[in-house]
Structure formats: structure tokens, C-alpha cells
Design brief:
Layout (H helix, E strand, L loop, with lengths): L1 H15 L12 E5 L4 E5 L13 E5 H8 L6 H11 L12 H10 L4 E5 L2 H7 L14 H7 L4 E3 L6 H18 L5 E4 L3 E6 L2 H23 L8 H9 L1 H11 L2
Parallel strand pairs: 5-6
Antiparallel strand pairs: 1-2, 1-4, 2-3, 4-7, 6-7
Helix pairs in contact: 1-8, 2-4, 4-7, 5-8, 6-8
The protein binds zinc ion.
Amino acid sequence: MHELLQSLVTLSSELGREDRQLAILGEGNTSARGDDDTFWVKASGSQLATITADGFTQVKLSAILALVERQHMTQEEVQAIWPEVMVDPRQKRPSVETFMHALCLAEGGANWVAHTHPIACNAILCSKLGAEPFMRHLFPDGIVVCGRFPAVVPYVDPGFDLAKAVRTELRRYQDAHGVSPKLLLMVNHGITALGKTMQEALNITRMADKWARTIIGAYTLGGPNFMPDHEAARIDSRLDEHYRRNQLTGR
Ligand SMILES: [Zn+2]
């Protein structure tokens, strides 16, 4: 468990690096699956850049998933329920995005989840275009690392309601594509990377940021020259790219 927490601290400080512009202050959160029916998630009030092992809280996965089945939960109800879903109630209160993390881990095929607010991604997701510029690709590594199609949720109140929207989108995505997404775009909010490994969660986040910067650059120079769909499909299915993908994620 010590090793997992150490890796969560590493992932968080990589994401919180000031030069990367992925999250500032208390923005963003990270989580990782434990070895049983639990996961570790950033505690409320911690900062990615400076977090240490005691900035994470261990919570019960199936107990949180059961809460998401409820029709509605007020902020007060959410605050009151935390001690029941925490493994050790003496730890810090979990982030309000714990519900979303639970869904990415339980239904999104992820072991490591990284949620950030990159400036470049938000410049697009907060624009009139929303997630639209991410629906086609501009360069092969975007497909290799972030997957051919990102998942998208509209703006929803962070916390319980957002988790419901994420669940709906994960299910729609799996029905449409037969796999889980690697990248979830959240309109007017940020992005979430769904990684099998810690390294993959970091890679997806960094590549999504680079992709967003490239989109913005392309729009200033006459507009994006998107890759043809058949070329994007080819990259997505190429064996040597599968090999690269596994090398990059440390699998
Ligand atoms: Zn957020």
C-alpha cells in the first residue's frame, strides 16, 4: 500500500508542476485502485503540487457506487455520508469528485485516474466550440495515447450530479465503441485521464494538453487540417502502434 500511495504522490506532483499548466491551487484530483474493494483518492483541500501521502483517503468502492444509484444527494447529505464510506474515518474527507473517480475505476476500466483543468484544454472546452475540435485528430500520437475517440460530458454541477453524467457517458461510449475511453472531456470544466497504469494516466493528460495546444495553434493559422478518418482508424489498429502503446504505459 505504501508503494501505491508513493506513486499517487508522484503522479499528483507531476500533474501539479507549475510549468505544465495542468492544475493550480486545489484544482484537480487523482485516485488509484487498492488491492481490495477500496481506492485511494485525493482528500478535499489538498493541492496536487504539494500533496503528501496523508493527503489521500482510502474509501470503499462498492459503498460509493451504491450511493450513485440514489436519485439525488444534497451537498449536506454527501458531507454526512463520508464517514460511512471511508475505511478509516480519522483520515481526511475525500474530494467531492470521489463519486466520479469511483465510476472511472469501476466502469471505465481504469486503475489510475487523473482529473485536471489544463489551460489549453479549457481554452477549447470553455469556447463556443466546446469539445467539437477533439472529435477528429491532428497527429498520430494523439490517437496512440488518448485513443481515437474521447468521451464527453456536458457541464454538470461537480460532485454527485457530475458522477451520474459520467456514468451515462461511460455506458454510451462502451455501447458505441466496445471499449472504455482513455480520455474524458468535461465541457466548461476540464479533463479526466483513465489509465491502466500510473504512467498511462500521466501520459494521457500530457498528450491531451499538447493536442489542445495544437488545436489552438491550428485555429490561428487558417483552421485545423484534420487527419482523414481512414488514416486515424489505421493508426488506431496498427500493430506497431499497439506495441508502442504498451511500451509507453509500462505494460
Ligand atoms: Zn475539476
